[in-house]
Predict the structure.
Amino acid sequence: MDGTENNLRLFPKKDARLYMSFMYVTFVSLLVGGLMGLLQTFVRSGRFTLPFNINYYTILTVHGVILGLVLTTFFILGFQFALMGKTVGISDKQRNAGWVSFWMMLVGTIMAAVTILVGEANVLYTFYAPLAAHPAFYIGLALVIIGSWVGAFTNFRQLYVWKKAHKGEKSPLLAFMVVINMLMWVIASLGVAIAVVVQFIPWSLGYTETINVLVSRTLFWYFGHPLVYFWLLPAYMAWYAIIPKIIGGKLFSDSLARLAFILLLMFSIPVGFHHQLTEPGIDPTWKFIQVVLTMMVVIPSLMTAFSIFATFEITGRKKGFSSLFGWFKKLPWGDVRFFAPFVGMAAFIPGGIGGIINASHQMNALVHNTIWITGHFHLTIATTVILTYFGIAYWLVPHLTGRRLTKQLNKLGIIQTIIWTVGMTIMSTAMHIQGLLGGPRRSAYSEYAGGAQVDTWIGYQLAQAIGGTILFIGILLMTYIFIKLAFFAPRGVEEFPIAAEDEDAQKTPKILENWYVWIGITIALIAFAYTIPMIDIIKHSPPGSVPFKWPIGRM
Amino acid sequence: MHLHKYEKVWLTFGMASLVIFLLIIGFAAFWKGTHPQSHLETIDQNNVEAHDSFKPENLGLTEVADGKYKVNIVASAFNYDFGVDKDEKAVKTIRVPQGSTVLFTITSKDVVHGFQVAGTNVNMMVEPGHISRYEAVMKNKGEFTIVCNEYCGIGHHQMFGKVEVY
């Protein structure tokens, strides 16, 4: 079948309804989580107190859980289901499994959200033991994770069924990428699921008296870093396989894209210790080994950067150019489906450099748990990833609802991207600088003991409130655009842009689809990086910790 | 698998930079001894006083040799215990002369805390059941705020102290 023809064919209504359900939750989350973010920057400016005795840490927990876990997971599952539906198809049974996944995640989200909002779970999204939230919070989180696994296994099944019907053919690139991302997600979230189900739930219910704090933290960070790659890989899918089509080009290299995803699968998991560099209970040699493994993700990142800019150049030159960088001007700057993800890519350059600093054995000491870290992930997640998600939504939502991204909405999207860029530049830069000066993250407004050092922080906190306000205007605009695209834009057909391979492209090596090899290497790397230190941690355990409720305001 | 010639150049350059970078941090860690804190030393968090460093009379600043100091601290929600002064008042500021070497030793009685002397490399997680230590040379004069930089509860932002280098 001709690629373009398939790209223009709308989904059956019952399929589109499933994919759109994930999008509704995504954009409601954006609005709620964004509002919490705005309130936080206000409180930290020192000029504002929350009404009705609402605690700062309640809104901080909502912000982290809703934006970090709910918005991302729902968007990713919805987008990936749509990609699978487009490339390998979905059966009635699989669609039903998709709904099971959606409802489990939604019920879990609501449970966790209510528990947080009534002040029974002021534990932030990392929920470090021995701070003890209400059991409903942990059970809600477990439901979200298990619900996402149902989605993952449905995706695996979709590709398996397709492969059986297309013996000897290589799998569609995007379906391959979805399967890699969900594989990584399942392997990684096993860690947090074990922590929640085996440690936190029985402990919070009172069935076990104590919890091993360091084990719970290590399991959390075993998951916590792949989590950020789980957010990033869908953006990579768009950069590799969708943006080239939007700018009127072809896929740069099918095999290179697959190789990059495989490397990301292998190197995203055995790296959690770089989040624990300043912890007392882990041997420094093992910390260093995981730092080295962490840095390996530089390789697929460089491959990605190269192939994306190569696509830009090749496409630009085909359309005619005048000089070394003339092709750059030929890119479709007025098309928001390109412009928003492009700004995201640009933000990933300083974001990635910051990541290398954070993950380094010693440089981390200066910035660990300072607001520099917050600045870092507002560049990577909240700019690179989120602007790419927005870039996807501009065509995915109208494609699903059978409407059109009109000229006017496209223009609003461009304005939205610019607002986002300005707001984030102000907020994130202020956070980076304040962090270098020692200002802590995750803290309500405080003048501490006073003094010259703290005075320097407060000015930057004011700048963050200004940036945060601009960003919230961006969120309101994005919500408006989403509502228009979902319900009010004129009816029509918006393309689902999937780039095709060049006719004379070289064959993709078969080995790249050998799942046993890549999953095997991934597991071997994880075993290498974690077995000995885990035994060490368990053997040298202090007495366990009883639950602490009062520090988070639970009587 | 086919790789473009320029891509090979780019990847070779990138990987070489990565190797050099890792060699530098490895050299600094293993030959210069600039590991982040790691002390693999455990303690019963329900009875920290049993450990010599955390007996009430041993808390706070002690000069151990000329220009060498140790500071013992017990963290709890939402306070750093630096011991008491002559008038039995809680110590909130640690004063050391410029250029002195200070060994910070800290543990937690309850939840996870942070211990950061803002503007220096002294930055540690403090976990129940573990002892955290970090030795630093106080090169610069001034007042440095100690902040709890790991969320420890709703009074987290009220947990602080001060190091004064004179």
In short: The radius of gyration of chain A is 23 Å. Chain A touches chain B through 78 residues (CB under 8 Å). Chain A has 17 helices and no strands. The mean pLDDT of chain A is 93.
